[in-house]
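S1.2 Input.
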Amino acid sequence: MANKDECKDIWSLGLGILASMICSLGDDSSCINIVDGVIHYFSEKSYLISGSLSSLKLPADDHGKKRTRIQKAQTSLVALRETEQTLALICVLARYQASWSKGMQSVESDLRETAVHILAFISKVGQRPGDSPYKTSFYCPPSLKEEFDINGRPSFINVKSGWFKSTVSCLDKSEVFSTKNSGLAMMVKDQGNESANKFHQTQFSDMVAIQIYRIAFLLLKFLCMQAKAAAKRAEEVEFIDLARFPELPMPEILHGLQDQAIAIVTEIFETNKSKPMHSEAEGACLLLLQILEKCLYLELCVSQSCGIRPVSGRVEDFSKEFKRLLQVAEPHPHFKAFLRSLSQMIALVYPGIL
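S1.3 Output.
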């Protein structure tokens, strides 16, 4: 009998193969038939999508309730990869707008709300004054032999920003028994144990952080596709119908993700200014710059559709941090073209700051 992680691996592999097959077929008529069939299948079994996203399904806020004991919650790297593969397939299917709109109409709004909710959670890390590397809201400790092996190796990324400074991969030995819950839940750590949980960045903690950012990128990609489709409809009728405009993240959510991306990439560039950059660090930089680009596009959509403008303090802070990023990027010319494209997007969102 296969264990739970093995079943998730097989399911993730199937999702990946399906997405690759659809991409390889392009716009061929046989591909449309396959897409229609896949969309019909998942529209009837929407619980499969929600189940695959459960590694990042958060409970409702209840900050008003005082918690008197530790609440333990775990997920696994396998579960996070399943979430990534599910979102990758969703993005592939959503490219076929006519089929998607027709087949997923009943679950589309819930899916967008889930995407926004997860992005809100991911964006919050490091936002509160005084946040330390020891504060976390869920755990993703190693569970497979190879994961324990790489958890003993030093970090390739070695930065202290965003999810790379989080202790998501660190679980106190006294808490390891709570392994049944693969869902991701809010958690309040016992302050008395905080000093006991010494966090050391490892290759495994790098992998967990990168996995979270891959999920964030795919969520943003899906919402960008939804926003572009809505913008196209508005252009055709020369009117923005806010009642039919898709749910998009509020600016503060996008700003949190932007700040994380800029801080991490800046730190990686500075750390590697006089030595060759490790391929893992280079890949992380590219991923985070793509996240920054998607966030800026969505912020532009929110600004134009809802008339929400960034406050002056935000514009000044963003300008300062992005100019610093451009400065430390000088020794890394292979990022120049992407940063130039990013600067053009910034000029649309924050005119005149560069």
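S1.4 Remarks. Residues 4-127+204-349 form one domain.
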